[in-house]
Write a structure and sequence with these properties.
This protein has 2 domains: 173 residues, Rossmann fold (3-Layer(aba) Sandwich); 150 residues, Rossmann fold. Helices cover 45% and strands 11% of the residues. The chain is built from 13 helices and 8 strands. The protein binds coproporphyrin III and fe (ii) ion. Its main location: cytoplasm.
Length: 375
């Protein structure tokens, strides 16, 4: 096999996701899993529970991961990549620990991990690595010989992640009434996090205010906005805004919120907006509730025409990007330099999170980084 198509040393891929409830009885236990020890106000939990109940207690995220699994397996098969793809979640079944146990018992020794989270930050990266460490600790306590797990690099700027978003924005613009289209703002949106977490996501000293988290999002937003301008001949004004804030009101989180932003746009005379959820990999609950329900209602109240552009989801170009990331990392683990695709100004992200990357307040073991306690 030609070197750059060889998955060795990897013998399996693990799709690692957030997980979500699949019926009304799952909602509260799911929220308990998500927020264990994180001091989310009870009021906020009741509110978030309502978002799920509005959709029958079902988060779309699991079906989206099932669809992604299917396109990944299809893409691998079509490209002669004989590598099983498994799926495990941090907060709901199929649970990460159970999947990793099955993979270990099936004899997998070297597992590449794709997290359904594209950017740096504690919530988007280190927390996934902590949960991997927890799962490995459980398997170790059960007397199992541990496989090695490697998390694939951040793919926020991979063309297979960015190009489908550009197409999504073009489709949303085309769907706006013609008389407001040319003046439409692009409101790039992502999950708000505490400003302290943003600054620690790759140090503010190196990346500026908001750390790597904000810088990476700004880079993607600029890349998408420039590609859209190139395609349409119109330079749409754009901004990076936030959604889904939680936590106590006195703690500063990234702002402005998308709903406040729509109000400001309206007040400033903007004729329309496209909400572009660059922070998310699929149309899960944060997109369906916070954007399609809440922000869309706010826009209707203002009389501001809005559209919400698609996330990458199970786009075959994303599956191809995952294959690319896996083969690139496999080659590099074998000591062979491989091309590392990236759009924008920041270049490809690191393979291995450095010691102390994206720290949380309380230090906990995290796998698949330079400070992993596991080989
Ligand atoms: C950066 C980021 C991403 C993007 C990266 C990634 O995708 O991982 C993300 C994704 C998601 N967040 C999700 C759900 C929730 N996030 C919560 C809480 C929080 N998220 C945070 C950050 C992020 N979150 C933070 C700083 C908190 C508060 C503190 C904490 O608890 O760490 C809470 C608790 C209640 C609330 O506060 O809202 C819930 C229910 C779902 C599933 C949706 C579904 O079911 O379809 C997904 C994909
Ligand atoms: Fe979240």
């Amino acid at each position: 096999m030609s070197d750059l198509r060889d998955p060795a040393p990897y013998d399996a891929l693990l799709l690692l996701s957030f997980g979500g409830p699949e019926g009304p009885d799952d909602v509260v236990p799911f929220l308990e899993n998500v927020t264990r020890g994180r001091g989310i106000p009870k009021e906020r939990l009741k509110e978030v529970g309502q978002h799920y109940f509005l959709f029958g207690g079902v988060s779309p995220i699991n079906d989206q991961n099932r669809a992604l699994l299917e396109v990944l397996r299809k893409d691998f098969a079509e490209h002669g990549l004989d590598l099983p793809v498994h799926w495990g979640n941090r907060n709901w079944a199929p649970y990460l620990t159970d999947t990793l146990r099955e993979m270990t018992d099936a004899g997998h020794r070297r597992i590449a991990v794709l997290a359904t989270s594209a950017y740096a930050s504690y919530s988007g990266c280190r927390q996934y690595r902590e949960n991997l460490a927890d799962a490995l600790a459980t398997l170790e306590a059960e007397g199992r010989r541990l496989p090695r797990v490697d998390k694939l690099r951040h793919y926020f700027n991979h063309p297979g992640f960015v190009r489908p978003m550009i197409d999504g924005v073009l489709a949303s613009l085309a769907d706006l009434p013609e008389d407001v289209r040319a003046g439409a703002h692009l409101a790039f949106t992502t999950h708000s996090i505490p400003t302290s977490a943003a600054d620690a996501s790759g140090p503010a000293a190196e990346h500026g205010d908001g750390g790597a988290y904000v810088r990476q999002h700004l880079d993607v937003a600029r890349t998408v906005a420039e590609a859209v301008a190139h395609e349409t001949g119109v330079e749409h004004p754009w901004e990076l805004v936030y959604q889904s804030r939680s936590g106590a009101p006195h703690i500063p989180w990234l702002e402005p919120d998308i709903c406040d932003h729509l109000e400001s746009l309206h007040a400033a005379g903007a004729p329309a907006a496209v909400m572009v959820p660059i922070g998310f990999v699929s149309d899960h609950m944060e997109v369906l509730y916070d954007l399609d329900t809440e922000a869309t209602a706010k826009a209707a109240e203002l009389g501001l025409p809005v559209r919400r552009s698609a996330t990458v989801g199970a786009d075959p170009r994303f599956a191809a990007a995952v294959r690319d990331l896996l083969l690139e990392r496999a080659a590099s683990e074998r000591g062979i330099p491989a091309e590392r695709c990236a759009l924008g100004a920041l270049g490809p992200s690191h393979d291995l999170c450095p010691v102390g990357c994206c720290p949380a307040r309380a230090a906990r073991p995290a796998a698949a980084g330079a400070d992993s306690p596991y080989a």
